[in-house]
Specification:
It is built from three helices and eleven strands; from the N terminus they run βββββααβββαβββ. With 152 residues, it is mainly beta. The protein has an eight-stranded mixed sheet with strand order 2-1-6-5-9-8-7-11. It has a three-stranded antiparallel sheet with strand order 4-3-10, with no helix packed on it. InterPro entries: MoCF_Sase_C, MOSC_domain, Pyrv_Knase-like_insert_dom_sf.
């Protein structure tokens, strides 16, 4: 697994920018991002499947216009992960706090019982160890005994 892309939104009504690297601060998130303010959803992570879905722009769902992830991970299989697991991304260690993104009740896809990939292919983390994350960085999953079991 590796970091495929990074995104930041600096202002509430601002544009979403693609960046090559970012500093992720412990217990805050991506420095300079509007969501980098702490809490249990400090960093949003999506699979490359979600990124492709968003970039194609064919969906009529609300999230495609509203959602952006801070980190896109190529080769990420969310079904193999669980809340509380720790991931090594670049220089950082992050803990998974939420899996999946809630649908908006007013979304046409939700109303038609046809949720988009964001429902299952997104997760949120909090930063345990700060550091720089760059496009191309490897991503590893830590065992529960806090040892790195390598990149999968």
């Amino acid at each position: 697994m590796k970091v495929k892309s990074l995104f930041i939104k600096r202002e509430k009504d601002g544009n979403i920018e693609r960046i090559e690297e970012g500093f992720f601060k412990r217990e805050k998130g991506l420095v300079g991002d509007i969501n980098g303010i702490g809490g249990d959803r400090q960093v949003s992570i999506a699979t490359d499947k979600v990124r492709k879905y968003i970039e194609e722009g064919k969906s009529k769902g609300i999230c495609v216009k509203r959602f952006y992830e801070n980190i896109t991970i190529e080769g990420l299989n969310i079904e193999e992960l669980s809340i509380g697991q720790k991931v090594i991304i670049g220089e950082t260690i992050q803990e998974i706090t939420h899996m999946g993104k809630r649908c908006f009740p007013e979304c046409n896809l939700f109303i038609s019982n046809n949720p988009c990939p964001l429902f299952k292919e997104v997760l949120f983390t909090r930063v345990l160890k700060d550091g720089i994350v760059k496009v191309g960085d490897k991503v590893g999953i830590m065992n529960y005994n806090n040892t790195d079991d390598g990149v999968r």
